[in-house]
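Hi team, as promised in this morning's meeting, here are the two structures we talked about. I've kept the exact order from the run log so nobody has to guess. The first one is mostly here for context; it's the second one we should focus on when we meet again. Sequence first, then the predicted structure tokens.
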Amino acid sequence: MPELPEMEALAAVLRERAVGKVVARAEPVAINALRTVSPAPADLLGATLADAGRRGKFLDLVFATPTGERLDLVAHLARAGWLRWKDSQPAAPGKGGRSGLAWRLVFTDGSGFDLTEAGTQKRLAVYLVRDPAEVPGVARLGIDPFDDAFTTDALAGLLAAAGRGQLKGVLTDQSVLAGVGNAYSDEALWAARLSPFAPANSLSAEKVTTLHGALVGVLRAAVEAAGGLGAADLKAEKKANLAVHGRTGQPCPRCGETVRQVAFADRSLQYCPACQTGGRVLADRRLSRLLK
């Protein structure tokens, strides 16, 4: 699933290649992907892309219509969605089906982008709104890790408020932290040498400081690594730079211990027992607990 660094990079691609361009076609190919009724996609015709940004894991494209109205195209790529930029879009209308095409936007110079989604679970969502706060997922977002207000004290407050909630779950709760998902929470917890199942309110002040530095550091490093890459190269760049996430069975790059996994119904997490759980192996079942 694209997380904060990938969405930051995709926004940068669009800022570089598309800001100032005028919309010629706006095609909601997969009708189920469009979650709003008004404004309609046709209202984007003739609008100019004024900015491209990110709100948590949401891509926020700001358009100015010929009448001066602001319209935001807000997209959540879900687990299997992606943005594909094309310098030359097909002249024919887009078709869904096996291609996974959910949305196509074409500018007057023929360039544009597709939003695609692989797999059978169609969760990619597109919203066309006058205010991003109209999107339910945006309205409930917590603080962004890159916000100046996200200090060590702010993180301490969030962890305290979470009580005995598991650390992994707190970090990936979008109403707590905007943009942090499964991969980068694994990476931050590994960097901070913390168990994913540690109670959120059990961390000492020193460990909170370490976690804050690890979280911000991991995210900033990922954004920097993705800088200048095209949309097509971002996935490979992300995978190549992960220390433990997605590397079950491989040696920990810090200590050499075998990276372990805890699998759930629809996702999994990875960690190093030697670095994060005092050598203890976490039970690999849905309701995981430390093995006695």
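And here is the second protein, the one for discussion:
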Amino acid sequence: MPVTDVQHDIDSRTLTIVADFAAPVERIWQIYADPRQLEKIWGPPEYPATVVDHDLRPGGRVTYFMTGPEGDKHAGYWQITAVDKPNGFTFDDGFADLDFNPNPELPVSKNVFTFTAHNGGTRSTFVSTYATAEALQQVLEMGVVEGASSAINQIDGLLAG
């Protein structure tokens, strides 16, 4: 499994996931830069993603929805704040309605995704920071660790295919 470490810190309001892949940094970057590849790894296997808009540049927006096993749809968005191709990017990640309007009742996280060369492959570090400890606790209770870990673990299959 690619995910090697998961830590959450209520005091700093952060969730950090580290994963290692047997692929160069540029290849991991391409997964996030290509909406069709991103669909294969964003969201856990039982909630596959459909990317609607994909503008991976500062000020750009990525919108998507995940479809559950019963056909239920859950939308979200990324508001891209910085890009350092191929080493990573930062974005605000939020929940949305099916028209991609932000859902103010659910937390928004500030995210830093970094990709660095490590042991002949890539170490990916995913850090999400929430405005409050309560917001972090809310997403933890919603299963963010399990969902994000199972989503990230799909990257090996995409790399092999």
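Starting points for discussion:
The helical segments are 25-33, 35-41, 133-141, 144-152, 155-160.
Residues 25-33 form the longest helix (9 residues).
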